[in-house]
Structures are given as structure tokens and as C-alpha cells.
Amino acid sequence: MSRWFGRAAAFIGLIAASLLIVAGLSSCVSVSPYFDADKPHRARDGFRNNYDNSDKQSFWRWQLERWQSGAPFPPKAPTPSAIPETDFLRTNLTEPTMTWIGHATVLLQVASYNILTDPHFSERASPVSFAGPKRMTQPGIAIDQLPHIDVVLISHNHYDHLDISTVQRLAAQSGGPPMFIVPLGLETWFKSAGIGNVVELDWWDRVRLGSLDFHFVPTQHWSQRTLWDRNKSLWGGFFVKHHSMSFVYTGDTGYSKDFSDIRARLGAPDIAAIPIGAYEPRWFMEKQHVNPADAVQVHKDLGAKYSLGVHWGTFELTDESLDEPPIALAEARVKAGVPAERFFITRIGEIRRLAPMLRADMKAAASATPQPISDAPRRTGR
Ligand SMILES: [Zn+2]
Questions:
Q1: Residue 132: what are its φ and ψ, rounded to 5°?
Q2: Which of 43, 294, 320, 324 could connect to 280 by a Cys-Cys bridge, CB 3.0–4.6 Å?
Q3: What are the helix (H) ranges across the chain?
Q4: Cα 159 to ligand 1 centre (Å)
Q5: Could you give the CA distance from residue 101 to residue 110 in angstroms, rounded to a whole number?
Q6: 207 forms bridges with which residues in the sheet?
Q7: CA angle, 327 as apex, 325 and 329 as ends, to 5°?
Q8: What is the distance of C-alpha 284 from the center of its chain?
Q9: Are strands 246-249 and 237-241 parallel, antiparallel or unpaired?
């Protein structure tokens, strides 16, 4: 009996020791490799926001409400789109331009560089091809009609901002892959997707390419692609600086003091691309997605001369109708005293030439002296 008891005790001891080892290992594994005790946004369990880290609201409560209300209701009109001047975009080496391609994808041309924000050209914003939010408006420019892309800016890893098929196609473009500038923690994902030309940035880091500086800046959001990787990679926006102009792309964000911080640290941009869609219901979305009224406040906090409303009219992600954001933006602008031309929307595929806008501002400023808007062409023959 005592021998049996001894064996049983030894067995239980072995199990307990194993459990302790496993628990110890898993607690080691769960410490983020980016943990930095001196940087509050790089916490032990993953990345955190600067100003709001409240608990996630119930996704299932939202889905139930959505099912009960029947939201979102279909738009009264399709998202306006323009026939793109692809020949101009493919040969333009001198004129700074901005083209909304759909959702959060913007083509910025400056100093003969072609820069894409969060490119998405697929049919669904989803981990699978047969389900998930379906594209309601085709991209303003087909992916094979784009000019050669030099830089791709990825704000975070949600499926409507980071699309594997799109980034793989861009990496395989003729003339060589673009440089992918991504948040901390995403380089491994790109490598596993077969993409090596990646620069990973923390908040306030900067990378220089020719005459352009790309700063990664904080915003209020989160990251997740699987059940196991919530906030394991960072999120943020980009501040692109050239001596002739500056541009901010905020990515997804709730309203926060981050935008005053960005202005205090890097100055006010000439142009900003700010989301105006995917904001209802507010009880669920408020901390992670601005609504048009918040977006106008972001425009003011940044001190942007001009802002373009993006992140609407393409994928039905939330409860407001696809065509509601521009209407709500117009109301918010009036309330905030922001003129329509200062925070505008464009048709999908419409090219906005930036030099005339910026020149008009320079003229208006009594102390301003005329400056060239773009560099001498960097490339020829494209
Ligand atoms: Zn997101």
C-alpha cells in the first residue's frame, strides 16, 4: 500500500512539475518581444494606445443589435467614381497629386515618387475569399494600371487595410518591388507572405527615401488578424515630409490627443487623409473609429490646410449606410466652421492636383514667398 502511495505521489508530483514548467513557459511566451518598460505603448502583453485602453465592447451585442435593426440600410446612390486618367498617372513625374482609389487606399505622387496607403484591390476585406465584407465599389484604378509603386504605407493589419493578395501583387510588379513601411511587429507577417522589402517602424521613428521622410505616428486603434494575435503588432499613421509639401495619413483611429501631439512634434501638414466612414454604432465604434464630426476635429488638431475624407463608400463594415459619411461630414463642417474646400471628398479614381491648392495658400499668406512645388524629376522614361 505504501509503495503504491509512493508511486502515486511521485506521479502527481511529476504532473504538478510539468504543469508549472508549462505555465512558466507560457508566461514567458506571452511576454511581448517588443516589451519596453520605458515605453508605455510597448506593454508586457502587447501594444497599447496612448490615451485609451478601455476594455473592448461586446462584438456579439453589436451583431445582435445589427441583426435586430437590419442595419446597414442600402445607400440611396452608389459611391461616385471617375474614369481614371491612368496615362497621366503613369507618366507624371513633376506634378504632386492625390487620388482616392477606394476605402483607405490613396495614391500620392510627390517628388516623382508613387506612394500607396493601405492598398486593397481585392473583392473582400476578409481572411477568406468566400465570406466577409464584399467590395461595393470597384477600385478607382485597376492594380495593373497603377504607375510603378515606390513606397507602400501599411497602417495596421486589419483585413480592410492589409490585403495579402494585393501586397503580393505589388511586390511582384514589373520594375521591382516597392518599399513596404509597416508598424512594429508586422515584418514577420510580410516575410511569411514572401515579401522581404520591408521597413518596420515604432511610433515617432523615421525612414528617409531620397528627398522624402516617412514618420510613423501614434493613433488610437488596435490590431488583430487571428484569434491569437490581438495587439501583437502596432498600428499608427504616417507623416510624409518633402520640402515642397507634407502629407498625413491617419489610418484607422478613434479621436484622441494624439493628433495635437503629432502637430506639436512634426508641425501642421499641408494635406491629410482622414477616415470619415465605419463609425456606427458609436457605443461600439467610438474609441476605435472617428465619425465625421471627430474627423473634422482631427483636421483642426493636426492644423491641416486641406483634408480628404477616406475610408467610406467601398466596404460595408458598420451600421451607417455607405453613402451617409459625406452627408454627415458636410453637417460637421458647417458646425465647426470649416469651409467645404478645406475638408473635401473626391470621387473614387478622381485625381486631385495639389500644386494649385498649395500655391493658392502660399499667395494668401502675406509672408509667403513662392517656392517650387516639386523636385526635378528623379526618374525618366516611366
Ligand atoms: Zn482597423
A1: 105, 170
A2: 320
A3: 2-30, 59-69, 86-91, 164-171, 187-192, 258-266, 282-285, 292-302, 324-336, 354-364
A4: 8
A5: 17
A6: 214
A7: 65
A8: 19
A9: antiparallel
- Amino acid symbol at 261: D
Please choose, from the candidates 148, 111, 90, the residue with its C-alpha nearest in 3D space to the C-alpha of residue 351. 90
Pick from 236, 122, 225, 220: nearest CA to 181? 236
Q: Which residues contact 306 (CB under 8 A, 6 or more apart)?
A: 270, 271, 272, 341, 342, 343, 344, 357
Give this prediction's pTM.
0.87
Q: Are 239 and 266 in contact (CB under 8 A)?
A: yes
- Which three three-digit cell numbers place residue 129? 475569399
Neighbours of 300 (CB within 10 A): 18
Question: Is the per-residue pLDDT at 311 higher than 60?
Answer: yes
pLDDT tens for residues 134-188? Answer: 999 999 999 999 999 999 999 999 999 999 999 999 999 999 999 999 999 999 9
The alpha carbon torsion through 241, 263, 247, 162 (nearest 10 deg) reads 110
Task: List domains and CATH numbers for the chain.
Answer: 2-55 (no CATH), 86-364 (3.60.15.10)
Q: Which residues contact 324 (CB under 8 A, 6 or more apart)?
A: 75
Ligand 1 centre from 198 Cα, in Å? 20
Q: What is the pLDDT of residue 116?
A: 98
321 Cα to the center of ligand 1, angstroms: 18
C-alpha cell read off for 338: 470649416
> Could you write out the DSSP letters of every residue in 253-297?
-B--THHHHHHHHH---SEEEEE-----SHHHHTTTS--HHHHHH
The whole-chain average pLDDT of the chain stands at 89
The pocket of ion ligand 1, defined by CB under 5 A, consists of 158, 252
Choice among 11-20, 148-157, 363-372 with the minimum mean pLDDT:
11-20
Amino acid code (one letter) for 369: T
Q: Is the pLDDT confidence value at 24 over 50?
A: no
Q: What pLDDT was estimated at residue 371?
A: 54
